[in-house]
TrEMBL record:
<keyword id="KW-0418">Kinase</keyword>
<dbReference type="InterPro" id="IPR000719">
    <property type="entry name" value="Prot_kinase_dom"/>
</dbReference>
<protein>
    <submittedName>
        <fullName>Protein kinase domain-containing protein</fullName>
    </submittedName>
</protein>
<dbReference type="InterPro" id="IPR011009">
    <property type="entry name" value="Kinase-like_dom_sf"/>
</dbReference>
<feature type="domain" description="Protein kinase">
    <location>
        <begin position="1"/>
        <end position="109"/>
    </location>
</feature>
<dbReference type="GO" id="GO:0004672">
    <property type="term" value="F:protein kinase activity"/>
</dbReference>
<dbReference type="GO" id="GO:0005524">
    <property type="term" value="F:ATP binding"/>
</dbReference>
<keyword id="KW-0808">Transferase</keyword>
Length: 109
């Protein structure tokens, strides 16, 4: 399982929804970075910018829709409210699509 998917899964286990998962809000710790800061784990993805995130009472699968806050991720056309966990998964899928497009174009990953 990719590290960033594990990160989303971990947040959701804690009932935290990020609501703005995108390339600009994810940082990958390469081994060279982890060697300079003991708080970092090599090959791990860290999410940042939690200003729109929420900690929910209900777990995934039980949360009713909420009005989605503004985010860098383009929402599906006509969607203004959604299960927030589902929106995180949608956003993570959009992130994966972006990574795969960059990889195919630049062969850099």
């Amino acid at each position: 399982m990719p590290a960033w998917v594990q990160g989303v899964e971990y947040m959701h286990k804690l009932h935290i929804v990020h609501l703005d998962i995108c390339l600009d809000n994810a940082v990958y710790a390469f081994p060279r970075h982890a060697a300079t800061d003991r708080r970092l784990v090599a090959n791990k993805v860290y999410f940042m910018d939690f200003h729109t995130s929420r900690q929910l009472v209900l777990e995934p699968g039980r949360q009713p829709p909420i009005t989605l806050p503004p985010s860098q991720v383009e929402k599906p056309e006509g969607v203004t409210a959604l299960d927030p966990y589902s929106f995180d998964v949608y956003s993570a899928g959009m992130l994966m699509q972006h990574i795969l497009q960059v990889r195919a174009t630049h062969d850099c990953y």
